[in-house]
Amino acid sequence: MSIAAKKVVTIHYHVSDNNTGEVFDSSEGQEPLVYLHGAQNVIPGLEKALEGQVVGFTFDVVIPASEAYGERLEELCSQVPMAAFQGVEKVEVGMEFHADGPQGPVMVEVVSVDEDTVTVDANHPLAGRDLKFKGEVVAIRDASEEELAHGHVHGEGGHHH
Q: Which of 2, 44, 49, 56 has an alpha carbon within 20 to 30 A of 14's alpha carbon?
């Protein structure tokens, strides 16, 4: 069986910044990642790299930012009046908040603070970074009707309702 849409795929992986080597995530010493292929459960570049592969396939691929979390967009950074943070004792760089965006709620990170203004960034933390994925395909199976209807994996290694 090979990886294709509507298959549940299990991989061990290690992801890092391709330029700096900074490690972002790894399944080493943990359960592998289990996802529904073709359902946008993982970044597009990783799905593309794994398409058609089989159990035992090892991968070492660089996914450009455009096929990962997108390019960094300066228009997603904005200045907000300090008054918008009423109820927060002390606003500090690195804090994250939910905010209302044009398409609904978004997470923003505080990137600078001055007396009257807070600058927030709504870019994904990995936006603008080329990612290096290394790993191995450890299992492939057909998705159940329920998984297909819900758009994600259920049960062990997946979502539990």
A: 2
